[in-house]
């Protein structure tokens, strides 16, 4: 089983695979919160690219928020596992209510960390960074979000992903960079020696540092 030391090492190894984008004036890194910000910051240092955050969030089932049935961004993107949502008895009205609640929480979170709106990305190359994917819902929401904002090229960079999810996400982006596709796949955190929670203070400081590059 492939094990990475931490998110910083993951970012360094991803940067080695993304060297073609170093110093590209048309490229930027958008990190998925929160762990993706730590990976994205290391990428931004290595590639000399600006860093910002793309706010997307897992959509939990009503009454069972830990059960992911999809994901949302801060505007109109809504990714849903229709089969699972039907299985747990969630109707469209409930989905809309849960999605809007999550969007409001995302906006409040962004305000709380002093974040900015997504920068202008029309006709630019966007490197989406996360610290790993499992279901892939938040990654898909991120891809759809930057596509709707007019990104010319979308690159998804993650340390680990299960095979089926990686295959499906690859069809959505212009380039997928994954360090490892282990089988069997466990929780993302199982592939790291160190997997601390990334705090809002850390996100704030990393984004501030990344935006000065």
Give a brief rundown of this model.
This protein is an alpha/beta fold and 213 residues long.
Report on this model:
With 213 residues, the protein is α/β, with parallel strands linked by helices. It has 7 helices and 8 strands; from the N terminus they run αβαββββααβαβαβα. The chain has helices at 7-17, 35-47, 82-87, 92-112, 137-148, 163-170, 200-210; strands at residues 27-31, 51-53, 56-61, 64-73, 78-80, 125-129, 153-160, 175-180. Strands 2-1-6-7-8 form a 5-stranded parallel β-sheet, sandwiched between helices. β1 (27-31), α2 (35-47) and β2 form a beta-alpha-beta unit. It is globular. The mean pLDDT is 92.
Write the layout of secondary structure elements.
Blueprint: H1 7-17, E1 27-31, H2 35-47, E2 51-53, E3 56-61, E4 64-73, E5 78-80, H3 82-87, H4 92-112, E6 125-129, H5 137-148, E7 153-160, H6 163-170, E8 175-180, H7 200-210
Parallel strand pairs: 1-2, 1-6, 6-7, 7-8
Antiparallel strand pairs: 3-4, 4-5
First-residue to last-residue Cα separation: 35 Å
Instruction: Give helix % range.
Output: 25-40%
Gyration radius (Cα, Å) is 16 Å
Q: Regarding quaternary structure, how should these chains be classified?
A: single chain
Mean pLDDT: 92
The description of the largest β-sheet is: 5 strands, parallel
Q: Using DSSP, what is the number of strands?
A: 8
Total of DSSP H or I helical runs spanning 4+ residues: 7
Q: Uncertain runs with pLDDT below 50, 5 residues or more?
A: none
Could you tell me the strand content as a percent range? 15-25%
Secondary-structure class: alpha/beta
